[in-house]
Amino acid sequence: MKKNDKNIINYKNAVSWEKTGNASWAQCKECDNWFNIGPSIISKPEIKLHCPNCHKEFFQEESKKIIIA
Ligand SMILES: [Zn+2]
């Protein structure tokens, strides 16, 4: 993993609190809101995430935390 992936937590093999295995979550760097992101977005760090709460756009590495489940 790259150095700037420190904010990304990979729970794929650790816990199973998400049943599907396709649900990942990002925490907004502005308002701390958690929102769902798809695996196709996770695999493309160059695409900005969009917070549905405050409508801030930011890259994965800028988010407070990302959980990949
Ligand atoms: Zn937000």
Strand order across the biggest sheet? 1-6-2-3
Q: State the low-pLDDT regions, or none.
A: none
Q: Can you tell me the overall shape?
A: globular
Number of domains: 1
β-strand number: 6
Share of residues in strands: 25-35%
Query: Structural class of the helices, strands and pairings?
Result: mainly beta
Using the CA coordinates, give the radius of gyration.
11 Å
- How confident is the prediction overall: mean pLDDT? 84
Bound molecules: zinc ion
* Percent range of helical residues: under 10%
Q: What characteristics describe this protein?
A:
mainly beta, four-stranded mixed sheet, 1 helix
Describe the structure.
The mean pLDDT is 84. The radius of gyration is 11 Å and the shape is globular. It has 69 residues and is mainly β. It has one domain (3-68). It is 6% helix and 28% strand. The strands form 2 sheets. Strands 1-6-2-3 form a 4-stranded mixed beta sheet. The chain is built from 1 helix and 6 strands. It has one helix at 39-42, and strands at 8-10, 24-27, 34-37, 49-50, 57-58, 65-68. A hairpin with a 6-residue loop joins strand 2 and strand 3. The chain binds zinc ion (ZN).
List the topology elements.
Blueprint lengths: L7 E3 L13 E4 L6 E4 L1 H4 L6 E2 L6 E2 L6 E4 L1
Parallel strand pairs: 1-6
Antiparallel strand pairs: 2-3, 2-6, 4-5
Bound molecules: zinc ion (ZN).
Zinc ion binds next to loops.
